[in-house]
Amino acid sequence: MNKLYYTWKQFDKDIDKLAIQILRSKWYPDYIVGITRGGLVPATALSHKICSTMYTMDVRLRDTDADYTGPERAFWLEAQALTKKILIVDDINDSGATLQWVKNCFKPHVIQTGNVRFATMFDHLGSDFDQVEYTVTELEPENKPWIVFPWEN
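^ that's the sequence the OP posted. Answer follows.
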């Protein structure tokens, strides 16, 4: 398997790039929501970088145990998205299943307001979810390495 070892130094540079993308878009999130587990580190760093409040959302579509009751459906988010801008952050858009699950938590008219956007450090262009507005590294479908994040070591 082709592995890509992602370093803290690269992560710091990429968080700066992601923050610049968001600020240049002139779309400033009121809330950043980090998806467990991989999205928590980038969400935390990004929330500090752009001074935005951060929350978490527990969505595990794999790596679960017997006590896991299923993905967290954060109903408060949908109500907030009518008046607040919410940025959903994950480490990677791989198959797209996690981000699609999160998007499905919102009614279509809420998504259409543009108040909910998605950001990832890595975005597989072959993913079934093609609505990542902010990303640092796009990966072609034929180049799909296993990314080893520094917080996984």
